[in-house]
Request: fold
Amino acid sequence: RPCVRVGRGGVLTSPSTARMAETAVPAQLSMAGPSPLDAAGFTVPSVVSWQQGVWQVVGEDSQALMVLLNNGEEVMCEPGGMLHSAPGLKPEADMGGLGMGFQRCCCAGESCIRVHYMNQTGQPQSVSITPSFPAKIIPIDMSKYSGLVIKKQSFTASIGRQVEIGIQWAPSWGVGCCADQGCCLSTLNGTGTAFLNAGGAVFMRVLAAGEQVHCDSSSVVAVEKSVTWDIVRTGDCMFMCCGGMGCFNTLLTGPGLVILQSMSIERTIKGFTMHAQK
Reply:
């Protein structure tokens, strides 16, 4: 009579089941040398992240940001981003200046309004913020970088007023017309903590000076201001017409941080549209 034993987590297993589990390990996990992710130079941020007593990112594929505000503290987010708010928080809306608000709205494709939730009570109060589509939330310590250029509508929130949202012109007409970012790019500057959103898997890489990476234009979430933008042809004429990648990819040249996403909102909409037409 075969014996039955209790495995981890209280799961009942037999010797044959245990042997099957031991042989079911994917081959790539036992390969010697660096993984394909390491060889490409990218890192994948942890799904669960937090700063003790201040903020926490919860969820897996579709995440939310929970923030605990002390007296006088505030969080800034995009309009419509609030999931829940404690009764003691005061909501406010502003444009950050009339000129800057219209520039963000008319030139960069962002909302002209910024929403703030401030704690004016004597007790800590909580608020939760969500992206406008199912996405992961990426915390960024802005004090570590020389400013970021971010994808349109990738900003989710920031804590306090130390993070400033602005715009800058695309570095060239080619980037403005063919890199899926438009002629005006959204920027983040400051020393606080900012939170960006990205769909699918998130990949981060710090490029050395002169180091380059080719990527799908819609997959770029953010780059450090020190990174140079350019465009390159995806391939020959046959590939540009039938390869499914369009005519141009984005070329990023270091030094600086690069953040990519595997499932941008544009790619998601395109996939749903193609299946709906079948």
User: Anything to note?
Assistant: Confidence is low (pLDDT under 50) at residues 1-25. Helices lie at 15-23, 36-40, 98-106, 173-178, 237-242, 265-276. The longest strand covers residues 163-169.
